[in-house]
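Students often ask why we bother predicting the structure of a whole assembly rather than each chain alone. The short answer is interfaces. A chain on its own may look different once its partners are present, and contacts between molecules only exist in the joint model. In this exercise we take three input lines together and write out one structure for the complete complex. Read the inputs first and try to guess which parts will touch.
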Amino acid sequence: MFSSFMVNTWIAASMVAVIAGVVGFFVVLRGSAFAAHAIPHGSFGGAAGAVLLGVNTILGLGIFAVGGALGIGWLSRRGRHDVATALALVLMLGLGSLFLSFSVEYAGAVYSLLFGEVLGVPSDDLLPMAGLGIACILAIAVLYRPLLLTSITPEVAEARGVRPGRIETGFLLVVALASTMTVPVVGVLLMFSLMIGPAATARSFTSSPLRAIALSVAIALIIVWFGIAIAYVTNYPVGFFVGTLGALSYGSARVWAARRRSRRVGASPGDDGPRLQLTAPLLRAAPPGR
Amino acid sequence: MTEPRPAIGIDDAVLSLDGVSVWLAGREVLHDVRFRVMPGEFTGLIGPNGAGKTTIFRVILGLQPPGAGSVLVGGRPLDRHNPIIGYVPQKVFFDPDMPLRARDVVGLGLDGHRLGIPLRGGGRRQAVDRMLAAVDATHLADARVGNLSGGEQQRVLIAHALISSPRLLLLDEPLANLDIRAEGEVVALLARIAREQRIAVLISAHDVNPLLPVMDRLVYVAAGRTASGTTAEVIRAEVLSALYGQHVDVLRVHGRILVVSGAEGASGVTLEETPGGAAAPDVVALR
Amino acid sequence: MSQLLNALFATGFFASAPVRAAVVVGAVVAVVTGAVGVFTVIRSQAFAGHALGEVGSAGGSLAFLSGTNPLWGYMGVAVIAAGLMEVLGVHRPRARDVATGLVLGAGLGFAALFLYLDTTSTSTTGVTVTILFGSLFTISQPMLPTIVVLSAVALVVIASCYRMLLLSSLSPELAAVRGVPVRAVAIAYLVIMAVAVSLAAETIGTILATALLVGPPATALRLTKRPGGAMVLAGLIGVAAVWIGIVLAYDSFYWPPVDHGWPVSFFVVAMVFVFYLGSGAVASLVRARRDRRVGDPSAMGESGCEPHVDADAA
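Now the answer. The structure tokens for the assembled complex follow.
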């Protein structure tokens, strides 16, 4: 599996995992899982359109992904966020079914676009992928502080002159960018699985944001490498392993965290924080204010 | 309404509202609100839920443009972002799984509105540690914010608001979900901050009693109207009845104040406990 | 009159059996998803609804593989997924988001596997497309009674726990205080949603299932504040969208490219979208008129606490 034509796949997959790990941290933090699913899923319609026009698929994916991100932002201002996401998604897919119906030969490629294809990452694609990936990381770095602030206290952010709506749209655009570059290997449907699983798992092991991002990347890399290796051997789709491994890792992290919590009954606040001083019994007596 | 002119000039006021009125969805929710907060003053914004306290806060923060009147913050008119105001919002929910420590939240108070990643050095860590110490939360610095109790999270949010060295600290119903002990601790902490660092504190609450020991002045909000002054000036049956537009009684028992709606036809009565014992029955009689 | 009818309904519209089946099943499904969807929107569970539909497709492809009726595959897997979502943490909104996402991810992973096995074992290439996009015009006739019965059951269940569901959706704390078993209601609702969505997904495809679960209810909630009225209105809007979509799809056979026809899912989604945007325009017109009437110098769109449901509260 380490032959020359597989090298591209390993490189591409590693890039995908890094991006997914970084972007995914914020997806989970902000509760944007639906958008992270809808944007890649809907961008599929753009790929169908690109095939119809005879243009590069990535272009179609990118246009629809960006359009989806902007559309969700626009609709969110007029209604609920999850309604906006659902409507944007079905509209993009509706257009996709229209484009699909016009081009007869596309049906075979649908599967690999949705679920991923281990083989077939041309060397020409690696450089643009890397470029998009670096752009994603840079965008996240630039938005890092306002993203965190708007994630925990949007009211305070607003009072400090930050516009939560703008930050949200900016973040969705980063998700769009990320999904465009990752589709070839992992597929539209499972890209978001890579964004959710590792980041959700990482939260159970550390409470520092930077460490959580690093851990999220590491777990994503492990899952993707594992997935490719098994997919290569069994010929089953990569997406199957990515999806199930992501859920498994989160499940086991939760079980592990619950076991550790029960072993330390009446212990400190936070999983890895210092123990409460006994000189502050009054604080201990206060019930959770929720 | 009753607003005695301060001896010092208006420019010294940290916050000044004058004739502020706000309409929302065709309804006038605030009418002719006027009060002033001086540096280092502890002011309570008291009133029942829905009276307009949060709207007043939104006006002060520049999030709600007033339909009439003027607002001066630090002597200057409202702007999108007033760095001299530190804000602690009402219901902040921290997800227990969220990977953010108390020190991360406090650090965001310093530069969370700026782009980029927080760089090491530049005294950021020391500033965060100082703030956490100021609110007695040093031992919580590396704890996951979502796992802290309500009172502990309150402290972290106060540190978050304080770290940018504001001149006015705005807290929206900070006592609402705390038990009595945590309530007392937060009030004492805020009073200490106001006193030691000459930071004006404006805190909204629906119950005036926890704030009685530390309040310098209060602004009572009812039905979109306000009355400001000292406790003795404002918490009186005549004043509150005029605000509510109906008869209101003020009962004082063991130094606590109770505001109750009065009987039909009875004019408001202010009762005082007779010194040296419980109120004798005939003192409690209403006309 | 007959000229108008001929213009709207291309020749053979009413004579075609697939069209008649599409009209009936489409309407039934639209009514059920509209009614269930009102609560989906109120409870902000659009993601869960969509996820259940797509996870159901894993069951559909499994059923295809094993040769059993796809409807039971869809429904069985969707109900299991609903249970998993509940178990993994539905109490907090953020945890619910993650749980839904992971169940969806795992479900799609299995869908990928089953579809792969489908195509390799039975060498039918269009399965993927069919599962995801469905086709209103290829409903199997014998399934019609089953679909109608199941839809009716779902509606009856919703109607019977309407008050408990409404209270626990609007204010779980108040409901708990009043003795409503909030957790049980939540699980029951997820299961009902799974049933409704899998009914829709198996017949008209996962796209339309999501579209009808979310679009018409959101539209209805913008036009009326009463949930009961919204459920009826959502059903009507959904039926309208489906029927107009069917007519257009049938007519499109004569549009370019000729003899090909445009997919019905496209038209139905387009109609759902048009109705939603239209209702938004209507709602803001009404609001502007009301604010002008009261003489408000700065007509803001905010409202105070309302006892009814606010469709657009984020």
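Check your guess against this: Residues 267-290 of chain A have pLDDT under 50 and may be disordered.
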